Amino acid sequence: MTASSYSSVYPLDARASGRPIPRVLSIAGSDPSGGAGVQADLKSIAAFGGYGMAAITALTAQNTRGVSAVHVPPAHFLRQQLEAISGDITIDAVKIGMLGDAAVIDEVRGWLEEVSPVVVVLDPVMVATSGDRLLRESAEKALRSLLPLAHLMTPNLPELAMLLGEPEARDWVSALDQGKRLAAEYGNTVLVKGGHLPGPECPDALVNTSGLLSQDVIEVAGPKVATRNSHGTGCSLSSALATVQARTGDWEVSLREVKPWLLGALKASDALHVGQGNGPVNHFHHFQVASKPGAFAAAMWNEAVPELEAIYGLPFIQGLQSGELPERDFNYYLAQDAIYLNGYSRVLARAGALAPTEEEQLFWAKASQQCLEVESELHRNWLSTREASTATGPVTKSYVDHLLATSAAGSYAVVLAAILPCYWLYAEVGQQLHTAYVDAGAPADHAYADWLKTYADEDFAAATRKAINFTDGAAVVASGTERAAMMDAFIQSCRYETAFFDAPRLFAQASFTGAQ
After folding, report:
1. From CA 93, how far away is CA 241, in angstroms rounded?
2. pLDDT tens, residue by residue, 318-336
3. What is the 3-state secondary structure (H, E, C) of 37-72?
Protein backbone atom coordinates (compact mmCIF):
# COMPACT_ATOMS: atom_id res chain seq x y z
CA MET A 1 0.00 0.00 0.00
CA THR A 2 1.09 3.59 -0.48
CA ALA A 3 0.51 6.68 1.61
CA SER A 4 -2.34 9.01 0.78
CA SER A 5 -4.30 11.71 2.54
CA TYR A 6 -6.96 10.48 4.90
CA SER A 7 -9.39 12.87 3.31
CA SER A 8 -9.18 10.88 0.09
CA VAL A 9 -11.24 8.22 1.86
CA TYR A 10 -12.80 9.89 4.89
CA PRO A 11 -13.17 13.68 4.90
CA LEU A 12 -12.89 14.94 8.45
CA ASP A 13 -16.25 15.55 10.06
CA ALA A 14 -16.00 18.76 12.10
CA ARG A 15 -18.20 17.25 14.81
CA ALA A 16 -15.74 14.43 15.38
CA SER A 17 -12.96 16.72 16.54
CA GLY A 18 -15.11 18.87 18.79
CA ARG A 19 -15.04 21.85 16.43
CA PRO A 20 -18.25 23.75 15.60
CA ILE A 21 -20.07 22.54 12.50
CA PRO A 22 -19.38 25.05 9.68
CA ARG A 23 -22.50 26.89 8.54
CA VAL A 24 -22.03 27.39 4.84
CA LEU A 25 -24.23 29.40 2.47
CA SER A 26 -24.35 28.62 -1.23
CA ILE A 27 -25.45 31.50 -3.46
CA ALA A 28 -25.96 29.79 -6.79
CA GLY A 29 -28.34 28.51 -9.41
CA SER A 30 -30.45 25.39 -9.17
CA ASP A 31 -29.78 22.26 -11.22
CA PRO A 32 -32.90 20.04 -11.19
CA SER A 33 -30.81 17.01 -12.23
CA GLY A 34 -28.85 17.33 -8.97
CA GLY A 35 -25.32 17.31 -10.37
CA ALA A 36 -24.34 20.98 -10.23
CA GLY A 37 -25.42 24.27 -8.67
CA VAL A 38 -26.82 24.42 -5.16
CA GLN A 39 -27.64 20.71 -5.27
CA ALA A 40 -23.97 19.83 -5.73
CA ASP A 41 -22.95 22.47 -3.19
CA LEU A 42 -25.19 21.09 -0.48
CA LYS A 43 -23.86 17.57 -1.06
CA SER A 44 -20.25 18.77 -0.84
CA ILE A 45 -20.92 20.75 2.30
CA ALA A 46 -22.56 17.72 3.91
CA ALA A 47 -19.70 15.46 2.79
CA PHE A 48 -17.32 17.60 4.88
CA GLY A 49 -19.55 17.81 7.93
CA GLY A 50 -20.99 21.27 7.30
CA TYR A 51 -24.51 22.62 7.60
CA GLY A 52 -25.56 23.81 4.15
CA MET A 53 -27.89 26.67 3.23
CA ALA A 54 -28.84 27.99 -0.20
CA ALA A 55 -30.03 31.25 -1.74
CA ILE A 56 -31.21 30.57 -5.29
CA THR A 57 -30.00 33.01 -7.96
CA ALA A 58 -31.42 31.27 -11.01
CA LEU A 59 -33.56 28.35 -12.07
CA THR A 60 -32.32 26.17 -14.90
CA ALA A 61 -33.82 23.45 -17.03
CA GLN A 62 -30.89 21.11 -17.48
CA ASN A 63 -29.71 17.53 -17.26
CA THR A 64 -26.50 15.65 -17.98
CA ARG A 65 -26.77 16.50 -21.67
CA GLY A 66 -27.03 20.27 -21.36
CA VAL A 67 -28.97 23.38 -20.37
CA SER A 68 -32.22 24.06 -22.26
CA ALA A 69 -33.52 27.11 -20.37
CA VAL A 70 -32.55 29.59 -17.64
CA HIS A 71 -34.94 31.71 -15.58
CA VAL A 72 -33.58 34.45 -13.31
CA PRO A 73 -36.08 35.47 -10.58
CA PRO A 74 -36.29 39.15 -9.59
CA ALA A 75 -33.02 40.27 -8.01
CA HIS A 76 -34.76 41.90 -5.06
CA PHE A 77 -36.16 38.50 -4.08
CA LEU A 78 -32.61 37.10 -3.93
CA ARG A 79 -31.73 39.97 -1.58
CA GLN A 80 -34.69 38.99 0.59
CA GLN A 81 -33.36 35.42 0.75
CA LEU A 82 -29.91 36.62 1.76
CA GLU A 83 -31.18 39.00 4.42
CA ALA A 84 -33.50 36.36 5.86
CA ILE A 85 -30.56 34.01 6.32
CA SER A 86 -27.96 36.48 7.64
CA GLY A 87 -30.53 38.15 9.90
CA ASP A 88 -30.99 34.92 11.82
CA ILE A 89 -28.00 32.59 11.24
CA THR A 90 -24.28 33.11 11.73
CA ILE A 91 -22.60 32.31 8.42
CA ASP A 92 -19.11 30.80 8.62
CA ALA A 93 -18.47 30.64 4.87
CA VAL A 94 -20.08 31.66 1.61
CA LYS A 95 -19.73 29.98 -1.76
CA ILE A 96 -20.90 31.98 -4.78
CA GLY A 97 -21.65 30.25 -8.05
CA MET A 98 -23.96 31.08 -10.96
CA LEU A 99 -25.27 34.65 -10.79
CA GLY A 100 -27.04 35.06 -14.14
CA ASP A 101 -27.19 38.82 -14.75
CA ALA A 102 -25.90 42.20 -13.58
CA ALA A 103 -28.86 42.95 -11.30
CA VAL A 104 -28.26 39.73 -9.35
CA ILE A 105 -24.54 40.48 -9.08
CA ASP A 106 -25.26 43.97 -7.76
CA GLU A 107 -27.51 42.58 -5.03
CA VAL A 108 -24.94 39.98 -3.98
CA ARG A 109 -22.19 42.61 -3.93
CA GLY A 110 -24.26 44.93 -1.76
CA TRP A 111 -25.08 42.13 0.68
CA LEU A 112 -21.42 41.03 0.92
CA GLU A 113 -20.32 44.59 1.67
CA GLU A 114 -22.84 44.77 4.52
CA VAL A 115 -22.26 41.32 6.05
CA SER A 116 -18.51 40.81 5.33
CA PRO A 117 -18.42 36.98 5.69
CA VAL A 118 -15.18 35.53 7.05
CA VAL A 119 -14.77 33.14 4.11
CA VAL A 120 -15.97 33.93 0.58
CA VAL A 121 -15.25 31.53 -2.27
CA LEU A 122 -16.27 32.75 -5.72
CA ASP A 123 -16.63 30.23 -8.50
CA PRO A 124 -17.18 32.57 -11.48
CA VAL A 125 -19.61 30.34 -13.33
CA MET A 126 -19.76 31.66 -16.89
CA VAL A 127 -19.99 28.55 -19.07
CA ALA A 128 -21.33 25.09 -18.16
CA THR A 129 -19.28 21.95 -18.70
CA SER A 130 -21.58 21.20 -21.63
CA GLY A 131 -20.55 24.50 -23.26
CA ASP A 132 -23.81 26.33 -22.53
CA ARG A 133 -23.38 29.95 -21.46
CA LEU A 134 -24.64 30.62 -17.92
CA LEU A 135 -23.74 34.31 -17.58
CA ARG A 136 -25.03 36.98 -19.92
CA GLU A 137 -22.24 38.82 -21.72
CA SER A 138 -23.63 42.12 -20.45
CA ALA A 139 -23.00 40.93 -16.87
CA GLU A 140 -19.29 40.21 -17.24
CA LYS A 141 -18.29 43.74 -16.21
CA ALA A 142 -20.52 43.55 -13.14
CA LEU A 143 -18.94 40.21 -12.22
CA ARG A 144 -15.47 41.80 -12.22
CA SER A 145 -16.72 44.33 -9.65
CA LEU A 146 -17.51 41.40 -7.35
CA LEU A 147 -14.06 39.80 -7.54
CA PRO A 148 -12.32 42.01 -4.91
CA LEU A 149 -14.81 40.82 -2.27
CA ALA A 150 -13.81 37.17 -2.68
CA HIS A 151 -11.06 35.57 -0.62
CA LEU A 152 -10.65 32.74 -3.10
CA MET A 153 -11.59 32.57 -6.79
CA THR A 154 -11.87 29.19 -8.52
CA PRO A 155 -12.23 29.77 -12.28
CA ASN A 156 -11.60 27.00 -14.77
CA LEU A 157 -9.19 27.87 -17.58
CA PRO A 158 -11.85 29.21 -20.01
CA GLU A 159 -13.28 31.40 -17.22
CA LEU A 160 -9.81 32.55 -16.18
CA ALA A 161 -9.15 33.68 -19.73
CA MET A 162 -12.53 35.42 -20.00
CA LEU A 163 -11.91 37.37 -16.77
CA LEU A 164 -8.62 38.62 -18.19
CA GLY A 165 -9.95 39.19 -21.70
CA GLU A 166 -7.32 36.85 -23.15
CA PRO A 167 -7.15 33.57 -25.08
CA GLU A 168 -7.42 30.42 -23.01
CA ALA A 169 -4.09 29.08 -21.65
CA ARG A 170 -2.82 26.02 -23.52
CA ASP A 171 -0.21 24.89 -21.00
CA TRP A 172 0.36 24.95 -17.25
CA VAL A 173 2.99 27.70 -17.28
CA SER A 174 0.64 30.02 -19.16
CA ALA A 175 -2.22 29.14 -16.83
CA LEU A 176 -0.12 30.00 -13.76
CA ASP A 177 0.90 33.29 -15.36
CA GLN A 178 -2.74 34.19 -15.92
CA GLY A 179 -3.56 33.20 -12.34
CA LYS A 180 -0.79 35.44 -10.99
CA ARG A 181 -2.03 38.42 -12.95
CA LEU A 182 -5.64 37.90 -11.88
CA ALA A 183 -4.60 37.54 -8.23
CA ALA A 184 -2.44 40.67 -8.43
CA GLU A 185 -5.23 42.68 -10.04
CA TYR A 186 -7.79 41.88 -7.34
CA GLY A 187 -5.57 41.23 -4.30
CA ASN A 188 -6.93 37.82 -3.43
CA THR A 189 -6.10 34.14 -3.92
CA VAL A 190 -6.81 32.34 -7.18
CA LEU A 191 -7.08 28.59 -7.55
CA VAL A 192 -5.68 27.73 -10.98
CA LYS A 193 -7.10 24.40 -12.14
CA GLY A 194 -5.40 22.22 -14.73
CA GLY A 195 -8.31 19.95 -15.56
CA HIS A 196 -8.82 21.44 -19.04
CA LEU A 197 -5.21 20.85 -20.10
CA PRO A 198 -4.23 17.85 -22.22
CA GLY A 199 -2.26 14.99 -20.70
CA PRO A 200 -2.64 12.55 -17.82
CA GLU A 201 -2.00 15.06 -15.01
CA CYS A 202 -4.44 17.45 -13.32
CA PRO A 203 -2.46 19.91 -11.19
CA ASP A 204 -4.04 22.66 -9.12
CA ALA A 205 -2.29 25.71 -7.71
CA LEU A 206 -3.12 28.36 -5.15
CA VAL A 207 -1.78 31.70 -6.38
CA ASN A 208 -1.43 34.87 -4.33
CA THR A 209 1.08 37.63 -5.00
CA SER A 210 0.35 39.74 -1.89
CA GLY A 211 2.05 37.54 0.71
CA LEU A 212 -1.06 35.89 2.15
CA LEU A 213 0.27 32.39 1.40
CA SER A 214 3.54 30.78 2.46
CA GLN A 215 4.69 31.35 -1.14
CA ASP A 216 3.26 32.98 -4.26
CA VAL A 217 2.39 29.67 -5.92
CA ILE A 218 1.51 26.45 -4.06
CA GLU A 219 1.06 23.54 -6.46
CA VAL A 220 -0.78 20.35 -5.57
CA ALA A 221 -0.28 17.58 -8.10
CA GLY A 222 -2.83 14.95 -9.02
CA PRO A 223 -3.79 12.57 -11.80
CA LYS A 224 -6.53 13.20 -14.32
CA VAL A 225 -9.43 10.74 -13.99
CA ALA A 226 -10.58 9.18 -17.25
CA THR A 227 -14.34 9.70 -16.94
CA ARG A 228 -17.00 11.67 -18.74
CA ASN A 229 -18.76 12.27 -15.41
CA SER A 230 -17.50 15.73 -14.46
CA HIS A 231 -20.83 17.57 -14.29
CA GLY A 232 -20.69 20.00 -11.35
CA THR A 233 -17.02 19.41 -10.57
CA GLY A 234 -16.28 23.13 -10.16
CA CYS A 235 -19.33 23.65 -7.95
CA SER A 236 -18.42 20.69 -5.78
CA LEU A 237 -14.78 21.75 -5.40
CA SER A 238 -15.50 25.36 -4.48
CA SER A 239 -18.22 24.57 -1.93
CA ALA A 240 -16.05 21.88 -0.34
CA LEU A 241 -13.17 24.35 -0.06
CA ALA A 242 -15.45 26.92 1.59
CA THR A 243 -16.56 24.34 4.14
CA VAL A 244 -13.09 23.08 5.01
CA GLN A 245 -11.61 26.60 5.05
CA ALA A 246 -14.14 27.60 7.73
CA ARG A 247 -12.51 24.92 9.89
CA THR A 248 -8.82 25.15 8.94
CA GLY A 249 -8.31 28.83 8.08
CA ASP A 250 -5.51 27.74 5.73
CA TRP A 251 -6.09 27.51 1.98
CA GLU A 252 -3.24 25.07 1.40
CA VAL A 253 -4.45 22.72 4.13
CA SER A 254 -7.99 22.99 2.79
CA LEU A 255 -6.96 22.19 -0.79
CA ARG A 256 -4.87 19.21 0.30
CA GLU A 257 -7.90 17.85 2.12
CA VAL A 258 -10.44 18.51 -0.61
CA LYS A 259 -8.50 17.55 -3.74
CA PRO A 260 -8.12 13.82 -2.88
CA TRP A 261 -11.80 13.68 -1.98
CA LEU A 262 -12.76 15.11 -5.37
CA LEU A 263 -10.42 12.64 -7.05
CA GLY A 264 -12.26 9.82 -5.30
CA ALA A 265 -15.63 11.36 -6.24
CA LEU A 266 -14.63 11.33 -9.92
CA LYS A 267 -13.28 7.78 -9.74
CA ALA A 268 -16.51 6.54 -8.14
CA SER A 269 -18.84 8.52 -10.43
CA ASP A 270 -19.60 5.58 -12.73
CA ALA A 271 -21.36 3.82 -9.85
CA LEU A 272 -24.14 6.44 -9.87
CA HIS A 273 -25.57 5.62 -13.34
CA VAL A 274 -27.14 9.09 -13.61
CA GLY A 275 -28.07 10.39 -17.07
CA GLN A 276 -26.94 9.68 -20.60
CA GLY A 277 -24.45 12.52 -20.94
CA ASN A 278 -21.89 14.19 -18.72
CA GLY A 279 -22.86 12.66 -15.37
CA PRO A 280 -22.27 13.97 -11.81
CA VAL A 281 -19.49 13.08 -9.39
CA ASN A 282 -20.11 10.75 -6.46
CA HIS A 283 -20.06 13.13 -3.48
CA PHE A 284 -20.51 10.45 -0.83
CA HIS A 285 -18.12 7.82 -2.15
CA HIS A 286 -16.20 7.87 1.13
CA PHE A 287 -19.22 6.64 3.11
CA GLN A 288 -19.81 3.79 0.68
CA VAL A 289 -16.16 2.67 0.84
CA ALA A 290 -16.16 2.90 4.62
CA SER A 291 -18.72 0.13 4.99
CA LYS A 292 -16.52 -2.49 3.28
CA PRO A 293 -14.43 -4.78 5.52
CA GLY A 294 -10.77 -3.91 5.25
CA ALA A 295 -11.33 -0.44 3.81
CA PHE A 296 -10.79 1.41 7.06
CA ALA A 297 -7.68 -0.61 7.87
CA ALA A 298 -6.31 0.30 4.44
CA ALA A 299 -7.04 3.97 5.08
CA MET A 300 -5.31 3.82 8.45
CA TRP A 301 -2.28 2.17 6.90
CA ASN A 302 -2.06 5.00 4.35
CA GLU A 303 -1.87 7.42 7.26
CA ALA A 304 0.67 5.31 9.13
CA VAL A 305 3.15 5.00 6.24
CA PRO A 306 4.49 8.59 6.43
CA GLU A 307 4.99 8.22 10.19
CA LEU A 308 6.85 4.94 9.68
CA GLU A 309 9.10 6.60 7.13
CA ALA A 310 9.78 9.40 9.59
CA ILE A 311 10.52 6.88 12.36
CA TYR A 312 13.01 4.97 10.22
CA GLY A 313 14.90 8.21 9.65
CA LEU A 314 15.26 9.06 13.34
CA PRO A 315 18.77 8.92 14.87
CA PHE A 316 17.40 6.76 17.71
CA ILE A 317 16.19 4.02 15.35
CA GLN A 318 19.29 4.18 13.20
CA GLY A 319 21.51 3.94 16.27
CA LEU A 320 19.45 1.08 17.70
CA GLN A 321 19.79 -0.79 14.42
CA SER A 322 23.55 -0.27 14.13
CA GLY A 323 24.23 -0.79 17.83
CA GLU A 324 25.82 2.65 18.10
CA LEU A 325 22.98 4.28 20.03
CA PRO A 326 24.33 6.03 23.15
CA GLU A 327 23.40 4.06 26.25
CA ARG A 328 22.07 7.26 27.81
CA ASP A 329 19.42 7.55 25.06
CA PHE A 330 18.44 3.88 25.34
CA ASN A 331 18.08 4.14 29.11
CA TYR A 332 15.84 7.18 28.76
CA TYR A 333 13.69 5.34 26.22
CA LEU A 334 13.31 2.32 28.53
CA ALA A 335 12.36 4.46 31.51
CA GLN A 336 9.75 6.37 29.50
CA ASP A 337 8.44 3.11 28.03
CA ALA A 338 7.81 1.76 31.53
CA ILE A 339 5.88 4.91 32.47
CA TYR A 340 3.93 4.80 29.22
CA LEU A 341 2.96 1.14 29.59
CA ASN A 342 1.41 1.84 32.97
CA GLY A 343 -0.98 4.36 31.42
CA TYR A 344 -1.47 2.28 28.27
CA SER A 345 -2.59 -0.70 30.36
CA ARG A 346 -5.43 1.38 31.79
CA VAL A 347 -6.62 2.32 28.32
CA LEU A 348 -6.51 -1.32 27.23
CA ALA A 349 -8.59 -2.22 30.27
CA ARG A 350 -11.10 0.46 29.26
CA ALA A 351 -11.30 -1.08 25.78
CA GLY A 352 -12.05 -4.42 27.39
CA ALA A 353 -14.84 -2.88 29.43
CA LEU A 354 -16.41 -1.34 26.32
CA ALA A 355 -15.93 -4.35 24.03
CA PRO A 356 -19.17 -5.80 22.60
CA THR A 357 -18.09 -9.46 22.42
CA GLU A 358 -16.54 -11.89 24.86
CA GLU A 359 -13.63 -12.53 22.49
CA GLU A 360 -12.73 -8.84 22.39
CA GLN A 361 -13.23 -8.40 26.13
CA LEU A 362 -10.79 -11.22 26.85
CA PHE A 363 -8.28 -9.97 24.28
CA TRP A 364 -8.04 -6.46 25.66
CA ALA A 365 -8.08 -7.61 29.29
CA LYS A 366 -5.17 -9.95 28.58
CA ALA A 367 -3.34 -7.17 26.74
CA SER A 368 -3.78 -4.87 29.74
CA GLN A 369 -2.32 -7.49 32.07
CA GLN A 370 0.61 -8.14 29.75
CA CYS A 371 1.38 -4.41 29.67
CA LEU A 372 1.77 -4.36 33.44
CA GLU A 373 3.92 -7.50 33.31
CA VAL A 374 6.19 -5.95 30.67
CA GLU A 375 6.49 -2.79 32.75
CA SER A 376 7.54 -4.86 35.77
CA GLU A 377 10.03 -6.79 33.68
CA LEU A 378 11.54 -3.58 32.30
CA HIS A 379 12.20 -2.37 35.82
CA ARG A 380 13.42 -5.74 37.02
CA ASN A 381 15.67 -6.84 34.16
CA TRP A 382 16.70 -3.70 32.34
CA LEU A 383 16.30 -0.57 34.41
CA SER A 384 17.54 -1.99 37.75
CA THR A 385 21.13 -1.90 36.48
CA ARG A 386 20.90 1.32 34.48
CA GLU A 387 20.87 5.00 35.31
CA ALA A 388 17.83 6.74 33.88
CA SER A 389 15.53 9.58 34.77
CA THR A 390 12.30 8.37 36.36
CA ALA A 391 10.50 11.66 35.71
CA THR A 392 7.71 11.55 33.13
CA GLY A 393 8.93 13.19 29.93
CA PRO A 394 6.77 15.73 28.05
CA VAL A 395 6.14 13.41 25.08
CA THR A 396 5.21 10.50 27.36
CA LYS A 397 2.81 12.71 29.31
CA SER A 398 1.18 14.09 26.17
CA TYR A 399 0.79 10.64 24.63
CA VAL A 400 -0.70 9.09 27.78
CA ASP A 401 -2.97 12.11 28.30
CA HIS A 402 -4.23 11.73 24.74
CA LEU A 403 -5.00 8.04 25.28
CA LEU A 404 -6.68 8.58 28.64
CA ALA A 405 -8.80 11.46 27.32
CA THR A 406 -9.88 9.34 24.36
CA SER A 407 -10.74 6.38 26.58
CA ALA A 408 -12.78 8.62 28.88
CA ALA A 409 -14.81 10.34 26.18
CA GLY A 410 -14.63 8.12 23.11
CA SER A 411 -16.65 5.14 22.00
CA TYR A 412 -15.22 1.63 21.80
CA ALA A 413 -14.31 2.17 18.14
CA VAL A 414 -12.49 5.45 18.83
CA VAL A 415 -10.57 3.94 21.76
CA LEU A 416 -9.39 1.09 19.51
CA ALA A 417 -8.19 3.56 16.89
CA ALA A 418 -6.16 5.43 19.52
CA ILE A 419 -4.70 2.17 20.87
CA LEU A 420 -3.75 0.66 17.53
CA PRO A 421 -0.57 2.60 16.57
CA CYS A 422 1.25 1.26 19.63
CA TYR A 423 0.64 -2.20 18.22
CA TRP A 424 0.94 -1.56 14.51
CA LEU A 425 3.81 0.92 14.24
CA TYR A 426 5.78 -0.79 16.99
CA ALA A 427 5.39 -4.16 15.27
CA GLU A 428 6.45 -2.77 11.88
CA VAL A 429 9.48 -0.94 13.28
CA GLY A 430 10.44 -3.92 15.39
CA GLN A 431 10.24 -6.29 12.45
CA GLN A 432 12.47 -4.04 10.35
CA LEU A 433 15.02 -3.70 13.13
CA HIS A 434 15.12 -7.44 13.77
CA THR A 435 15.36 -8.24 10.06
CA ALA A 436 18.27 -5.82 9.65
CA TYR A 437 19.97 -7.38 12.68
CA VAL A 438 19.61 -10.89 11.24
CA ASP A 439 20.63 -9.77 7.75
CA ALA A 440 23.80 -8.31 9.25
CA GLY A 441 24.68 -11.78 10.58
CA ALA A 442 23.28 -11.25 14.08
CA PRO A 443 26.58 -9.89 15.42
CA ALA A 444 27.17 -11.04 18.98
CA ASP A 445 28.85 -7.77 19.93
CA HIS A 446 25.74 -5.73 19.04
CA ALA A 447 25.02 -3.60 22.11
CA TYR A 448 21.27 -4.12 21.84
CA ALA A 449 21.14 -7.69 20.53
CA ASP A 450 18.94 -8.97 23.36
CA TRP A 451 16.47 -6.14 22.84
CA LEU A 452 16.29 -6.65 19.06
CA LYS A 453 15.62 -10.36 19.54
CA THR A 454 12.42 -9.55 21.43
CA TYR A 455 11.00 -7.98 18.28
CA ALA A 456 10.74 -11.41 16.62
CA ASP A 457 7.91 -12.48 18.93
CA GLU A 458 5.24 -14.05 16.74
CA ASP A 459 2.69 -13.76 19.56
CA PHE A 460 2.94 -9.98 19.39
CA ALA A 461 2.62 -10.05 15.60
CA ALA A 462 -0.52 -12.17 15.93
CA ALA A 463 -1.94 -9.81 18.57
CA THR A 464 -1.27 -6.89 16.25
CA ARG A 465 -3.22 -8.55 13.46
CA LYS A 466 -6.14 -9.12 15.84
CA ALA A 467 -6.05 -5.52 17.01
CA ILE A 468 -6.18 -4.33 13.39
CA ASN A 469 -9.11 -6.61 12.61
CA PHE A 470 -11.05 -5.55 15.70
CA THR A 471 -10.53 -1.88 14.83
CA ASP A 472 -11.55 -2.36 11.22
CA GLY A 473 -14.62 -4.31 12.32
CA ALA A 474 -15.63 -1.51 14.67
CA ALA A 475 -15.30 0.96 11.79
CA VAL A 476 -17.59 -1.06 9.54
CA VAL A 477 -20.54 -0.65 11.91
CA ALA A 478 -19.65 2.90 12.98
CA SER A 479 -21.30 6.07 11.71
CA GLY A 480 -19.49 8.50 9.42
CA THR A 481 -18.96 10.86 12.33
CA GLU A 482 -17.52 8.08 14.48
CA ARG A 483 -15.17 6.92 11.71
CA ALA A 484 -13.89 10.46 11.38
CA ALA A 485 -13.23 10.56 15.13
CA MET A 486 -11.48 7.17 14.86
CA MET A 487 -9.15 8.42 12.16
CA ASP A 488 -8.42 11.60 14.05
CA ALA A 489 -7.47 9.59 17.17
CA PHE A 490 -5.39 7.15 15.11
CA ILE A 491 -3.44 9.91 13.38
CA GLN A 492 -2.69 11.65 16.67
CA SER A 493 -1.40 8.40 18.19
CA CYS A 494 0.76 7.75 15.11
CA ARG A 495 2.37 11.14 15.53
CA TYR A 496 2.97 10.48 19.20
CA GLU A 497 4.65 7.18 18.30
CA THR A 498 7.11 9.07 16.11
CA ALA A 499 7.70 11.67 18.81
CA PHE A 500 8.21 8.95 21.42
CA PHE A 501 11.07 7.41 19.44
CA ASP A 502 12.61 10.86 19.00
CA ALA A 503 12.21 11.90 22.65
CA PRO A 504 15.62 10.52 23.81
CA ARG A 505 17.42 12.81 21.37
CA LEU A 506 15.48 15.85 22.58
CA PHE A 507 16.10 14.90 26.20
CA ALA A 508 19.83 14.59 25.53
CA GLN A 509 19.89 17.98 23.83
CA ALA A 510 18.05 19.60 26.72
CA SER A 511 20.38 17.98 29.24
CA PHE A 512 23.44 19.19 27.32
CA THR A 513 22.08 22.72 27.09
CA GLY A 514 21.27 22.74 30.79
CA ALA A 515 24.76 21.55 31.67
CA GLN A 516 26.43 24.42 29.85
Report:
1. 10
2. 998 888 999 889 889 888 9
3. HHHHHHHHHHHCCCEEEEEEEEEEEEECCEEEEEEC
